[in-house]
Amino acid sequence: MARMSCDLRFLLIPAAFMFIYIQMRLFQTQSQYADRLGSAIESENHCTSQMRGLIDEVSIKQSQIVALQDMKNRQDQELVQLKDLIHTFEKKGIATLIEAGQMPVAAVVIMACSRADYLARTVKSVLTYQSPVASKYPLFISQDGSDQAVKSKASSYNQLTYMQHLDFEPVITERPGELIAYYKIARHYKWALDQLFYKHKFSRVIILEDDMEIAPDFFDYFEAAANLMDRDKTIMAASSWNDNGQKQFVHDPSALYRSDFFPGLGWMLKRSTWDELSPKLKENHKGRQFIRPEVCRTYNFGEHGSSLGQFFSQYLEPIKLNDVKVDWKAKDLGYLTEGNYTKYFSGLVRQARPIQGADLVLKAQNIKGDVRIRYKDQAEFERIAGEFGIFEEWKDGVPRTAYKGVVVFRIQTTRRVFLVGPDSVMQLGIRNS
């Protein structure tokens, strides 16, 4: 019996070793399966990540496809508009007019955006004086954007041709804080002028905005200006506006001046000048000047617009709109050509009586005849201009309305005041007195 118990103990030892061996193999197998499972999970995560990347790439491609489709739709829409424009243009007989040799003096374009009520007032004023000379001044409205009220109003007139500018490109300003609206306006101007100069082959274009009324002799004035610009290539553009054209500062409706400052607000440009400006859309005078009247031929009633009403109550609202029909055909404008004007203008300044010191406004009012006042720099000009109430602003180193640094305006009707800059003495040959 004792022998049998001993034999059993000897048998249990190998069995124990076998059990331990089997447990070790099972643990090893489990570890291998765990490693394989970890690798499988890692592979699955990698595949999932790749799948997500592919989904994102597909989404980007789909967005690009949608953007390309939108671009195609816009181009198709512009093509339809262009065909409609050509049809309207031909229907209204402008092409026939040109073929018959009756070349217009200039196309007139009213730049509009989203102010249908302003546009109606402007068109009413323009048609009042354009209708008798419609063959000389074909009329267009160019709308920036898709405001339906403006489009409906513009399309309702049989006397004009409607154009629409659609701009979907984002605006990137050159300097922080600049108004995006001015960049969009510049793009619209470029597009409209390219259309009129290059597609429709007009030699001149008069640009108005949708918040302007015009004077009775507006078109006669620009016809005279067109002849002057043909004679003198140093004239960059002719404007119907005087920044210091408020009622208290003007007198003579037939007086014209050259200026180094671009007046804008109703102006005429030649195609040859636009050839230079269009590629970069930047003002480049190259030593040339602008023609402006003493009494404005346009009145700006746009209190609400892109400029946010800037200067309106002080400078724009009191502007004097000419109400006299000047016979421009009878006027000799030879004094405005480059060869004559410097001599003519410097003569006016030299004849004016110099005054200085305090109480300049009072002195100017109590002296008979024209007066001239020297200013040494921009700060002093702004102070003197503020005393009289004229525009104080400069742009690119030039005071508004200035010719060779001289700003001229009327005081008490007929008498002129000349504000003379530090460089004017040499440029105009004025004695330093």
UniProtKB/TrEMBL annotation:
Q: In which pathway does it act?
A: Protein modification; protein glycosylation
Tell me where it mainly resides: Golgi
Q: Where in the cell is it found?
A: Golgi apparatus membrane
Q: What cofactor is this protein dependent on?
A: Mn(2+)
Task: Quote the CDD domains the UniProt record gives.
Answer: GT13_GLCNAC-TI
Supply one GO BP term. Answer: N-glycan processing
Coiled-coil regions listed in the entry: 65-92
One CC-aspect GO term: Golgi membrane
GO molecular-function terms, A-Z: alpha-1,3-mannosylglycoprotein 2-beta-N-acetylglucosaminyltransferase activity; manganese ion binding; protein N-acetylglucosaminyltransferase activity
The reply on keyword Transcription regulation is no
Membrane topology, from the record? Single-pass type II membrane protein
Q: Gene3D superfamilies attached here?
A: N-Acetylglucosaminyltransferase I, Domain 2, Spore Coat Polysaccharide Biosynthesis Protein SpsA, Chain A
> According to its UniProt record, which reaction does this protein catalyse?
N(4)-(alpha-D-Man-(1->3)-[alpha-D-Man-(1->3)-[alpha-D-Man-(1->6)]-alpha-D-Man-(1->6)]-beta-D-Man-(1->4)-beta-D-GlcNAc-(1->4)-beta-D-GlcNAc)-L-asparaginyl-[protein] (N-glucan mannose isomer 5A1,2) + UDP-N-acetyl-alpha-D-glucosamine = N(4)-{beta-D-GlcNAc-(1->2)-alpha-D-Man-(1->3)-[alpha-D-Man-(1->3)-[alpha-D-Man-(1->6)]-alpha-D-Man-(1->6)]-beta-D-Man-(1->4)-beta-D-GlcNAc-(1->4)-beta-D-GlcNAc}-L-asparaginyl-[protein] + UDP + H(+)
> Briefly, what is this protein's role?
Initiates complex N-linked carbohydrate formation. Essential for the conversion of high-mannose to hybrid and complex N-glycans.
Q: Can you say what this protein is called?
A: Alpha-1,3-mannosyl-glycoprotein 2-beta-N-acetylglucosaminyltransferase
Which Pfam family, any one, appears in the UniProt record?
GNT-I
E.C. no: 2.4.1.101
How, per the record, is the cofactor bound? The cofactor is mostly bound to the substrate.
